[in-house]
Design goal:
The protein is mainly alpha-helical. It has helices at 4-35, 40-51, 54-65, 69-94, 101-105, 107-125, 130-153, 155-166, 175-207, 211-223, 225-236, 240-265, 272-296, 301-320, and strands spanning 97-98, 127-128, 268-269, 298-299. Helix 3 (54-65) packs antiparallel against helix 4, helix 4 runs parallel beside helix 11 (225-236) and helix 7 packs antiparallel against helix 12 (240-265). It is globular, with a radius of gyration of 19 Å.
Length: 321
Amino acid sequence: MENLTILFLLFLAGLGFLVLGAGWLVKGATDLAYLLGMRLLVIGLIFVAFGTSCPEVGVSILAAIHGKSGIALGNAIGSNIVNIGLVLGLCALVMPIKINRELLRREIPIVLLSALGLYVLCFVGRVISRIDAAVLLLGFIIYLVYIFYKANRQKQLDEELKDSAMSLVDKKMNKPKASSIFLLGLVILMAGAQLMVSTGSRIALRLGISEVVLGITIFALGTSLPELAVSLAGVFKKREDIAVGNVLGSNIFNILLVVGLAAMINPIRIESQTIFFEMPVLIIFTLATFLFMKTRGLVERWEGAVLLLSYIGFIVFLFLV
């Protein structure tokens, strides 16, 4: 019988490798893209936006390859709930967050539509097939094209994305070094994901919980650490647009890209609890966030407290039922 403490320590080690590898992967890819002459706007759209979702992508791909599709889906759903309940809630508690109206018109409806679309796919077929995955991935491509179009039309957004890209670019880097950092980051990220998936599934077995619940709780919290770090940094620097944009963008990535990739590798069978509990909770969190943002164009401290306490209540309830 495996020691549960050792399994948790191995899981945390995998998480450490995952976060480290994701950082190196994005850094190497960003420098390489810059050296190859890619526009800073494109770098900002692709690599900066993709950076905080790297852990979810790595874990979900490895989980799908090993037939642990419950972890892949749970990780995506759970990460989105973490982003709203924990990350956004905690940020609003630290400092009330002023909402850019463009985010209300653009990101929030897309976040809500993607969550509702995923729920329909789960409810109708009780499985996310490769055809469904293709639809999600197509939606992700359309989203990227749309954001790129809007960024080109809006100078302020263009400059913000360029600034974000430049904060990652090392002009002294050369192609061999950037390629090495990229490949090393990829290897470390996948090794961390492998360790998390293998130990996580054994932890679920030992605790008698489903892989979906494990993905929604421990995996989601672990892989959402980059979002938490970036959003809190944005709040402390009084850049609320970074904090909110990071949360909303990550939620879109998680549903369209993460679930899409995982289901393309291995179709995901849906548990009843996911249809009647976890997915409705995600939609409720998303709707509540939209209402909080729309009322005064501000997420106040008490609203952040509501989101945070709701997230804690959700986690407690998961382990009680």
